TrEMBL record:
Protein name (database record): Cell division protein YceG involved in septum cleavage
This protein's UniProt keywords: Cell cycle, Cell division, Membrane, Transmembrane, Transmembrane helix
Transmembrane annotation, as ranges: 7-31
GO BP: cell division
Pfam families: YceG
Length: 225
């Protein structure tokens, strides 16, 4: 019985030593795998597909080489080129039903967090003159779009910046004809009549930048004294 106990203790001690050695070997192997993985990536352009099974093969090849049983050299696995994701921008789709008016559109945009101030929204719609031009449909609103761009899409317009020069002492008719010629307004006559109605006759000379769509009255406000 005493001999059996001694044998049991001896076997337990051997097993304990074996487990410790096995743990140490596994630890060394994992560290070696990570070092080899980092090294393989450092000498290649891209991401090396270097898995644990590759480390087993590499280690086996190295051991056989040290024992003189093989002349083969381990080759690093095929390199996978890093795939760069395109710069995607998030977008949302809004639905504008038929017969949507300015107020209803404001509620839709507010519910989607596309506008923050309903009063500023109403002012912009009025300045652009699109209250009666809202078109039903589905619209893709991309991240970063400005409110003016959104309203331009929904009203079937394209934002366009016009650049023009006004000469010193130019009359309303002169300016109206020029704006009609460049396609900024439809009628120079209506422009002149609006100038009279607003009592605006003195135009600021020099270069002007006006983004359309914009009501004629707002154009006049921007370019007159």
């Amino acid at each position: 019985m005493r001999n059996f106990n001694k044998l049991s203790l001896f076997l337990m001690k051997v097993l304990e030593i074996f487990l410790l050695v096995l743990f140490f070997v596994l630890l060394v192997f994992i560290v070696k795998w990570r070092i080899d993985h980092l090294y393989a990536n450092s000498i290649n352009n891209g991401e090396v597909d270097f898995k644990i099974k590759d480390e087993f093969i590499k280690t086996k090849t190295e051991i056989l080489g040290l024992m003189g049983k093989t002349d083969e050299e381990y080759k690093i696995p095929v390199v996978k080129e890093r795939e760069i994701e395109p710069n995607k921008k998030e977008s949302i789709i809004i639905n504008v039903p038929a017969n949507t008016d300015k107020d209803s559109l404001g509620e839709i945009l507010m519910s989607k967090n596309l506008i923050a101030d309903i009063n500023e929204y109403n002012r912009l719609v009025d300045d652009m003159g699109i209250a009666e031009k809202i078109l039903p449909g589905h619209y893709e609103i991309k991240e970063g779009m400005k409110v003016k761009e959104i309203l331009s899409d929904i009203s079937g317009n394209v934002l366009h910046e016009y650049k023009f020069n006004i000469s010193e002492g130019a009359s309303a008719a002169d300016v109206g004809n020029m704006l009609e010629d460049i396609g900024m307004i439809e009628s120079s006559y209506a422009f002149v009549e609006k100038c009279k109605e607003m009592n605006k006759t003195q135009f600021v000379p020099g270069e002007h930048h006006v983004t359309m769509p914009l009501k004629v009255a707002k154009i006049i406000e921007q370019i007159t004294v």
